[in-house]
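User: Hi! I have a protein structure encoded as tokens and I'd like to know what sequence might fold into it. I'm fairly new to this, so please keep things simple.
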């Protein structure tokens, strides 16, 4: 009987250890996926960014995530860049305006706006979207942290969706005497992977990239040829949420449930036949 009791306690300890080990492994793996720096979409950190900016949506200069785009412009110009953002990413746009050293007549107010592929203005969760620069300021820094990009949304909603995102930088309050003064601009867009907490069912048939439907129709009737990504489209294609850490949690949850069932059975099955009861009774 002691042998049976020791075996039961040993089995319970083994199952408890396996359950805790599985839970620890699942938690650490999920955290690693969410916090892995390599998951941030910044593949172009070592590449030189563009040195000019567009002046309209149609002429926006393409910039990859992680690149720093620069431009020389005049105060009062509208400057545009475009970058891609995929499902599960939370983009952050940063801009620095280097003001001329010559004396300016008064303060100026600068603003950065972000629009999606449908040219819908996207609200900033937080950041310094609009800032004033004193007359003697050397530079002004702006930032905008967008909401997490969703793989699918209702047509009436204004949620961020996979596709091109346009950055527009301009001055919104400037004395007439300071219009046309030379300024230098730096912009950068980076993203943080948010993981399966923001996943939704469904996905877009095509990312919101201007002209993607026309390009797809043309490719269907043309001979096979290497496709060149358009402005605001990643070179390695769109993931659009086909893989998320929900798969990891689903598989891990199934393993833990199986271990818990075995452990529960070991607790409720009893100690077997008492030693003083003969077989067949």
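Assistant: Happy to help. Inverse folding works backwards from shape to sequence: for each of the 281 positions I chose a residue that suits the local structure. Here it is:
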């Amino acid at each position: 009987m002691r042998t049976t009791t020791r075996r039961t306690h040993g089995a319970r300890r083994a199952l408890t250890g396996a359950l805790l080990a599985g839970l620890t492994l699942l938690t650490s793996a999920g955290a690693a996926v969410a916090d892995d720096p390599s998951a941030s979409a910044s593949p172009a950190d070592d590449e030189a960014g563009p040195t000019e900016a567009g002046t309209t949506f149609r002429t926006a200069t393409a910039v990859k995530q992680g690149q720093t785009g620069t431009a020389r412009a005049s105060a009062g110009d509208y400057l545009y860049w475009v970058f891609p953002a995929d499902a599960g990413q939370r983009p952050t746009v940063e801009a620095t305006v280097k003001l001329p050293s010559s004396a300016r007549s008064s303060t100026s107010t600068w603003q950065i706006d972000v629009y999606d592929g449908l040219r819908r203005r996207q609200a900033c969760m937080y950041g310094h979207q609009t800032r004033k620069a004193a007359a003697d300021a050397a530079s002004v820094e702006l930032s905008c942290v967008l909401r997490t990009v969703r793989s699918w949304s209702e047509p009436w909603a204004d949620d961020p969706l996979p596709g091109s995102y346009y950055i527009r930088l301009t001055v919104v309050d400037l004395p007439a005497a300071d219009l046309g003064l030379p300024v230098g601009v730096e912009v950068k867009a980076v993203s943080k992977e948010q993981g399966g907490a923001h996943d939704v069912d469904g996905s877009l048939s095509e990312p919101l990239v201007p002209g993607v439907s026309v390009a797809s129709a043309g490719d269907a009737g043309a001979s096979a040829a290497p496709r060149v990504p358009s402005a605001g489209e990643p070179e390695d294609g769109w993931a659009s949420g086909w893989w998320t850490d929900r798969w990891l949690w689903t598989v891990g949850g199934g393993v833990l449930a199986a271990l818990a069932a075995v452990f529960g059975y070991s607790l409720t099955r009893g100690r077997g036949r008492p030693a003083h009861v003969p077989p067949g009774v």
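A useful reference point when you look it over: Strands lie at 61-62, 68-74, 79-85, 89-98, 108-115, 121-122, 130-133, 139-145, 163-173, 182-193. Feel free to ask if any position seems puzzling.
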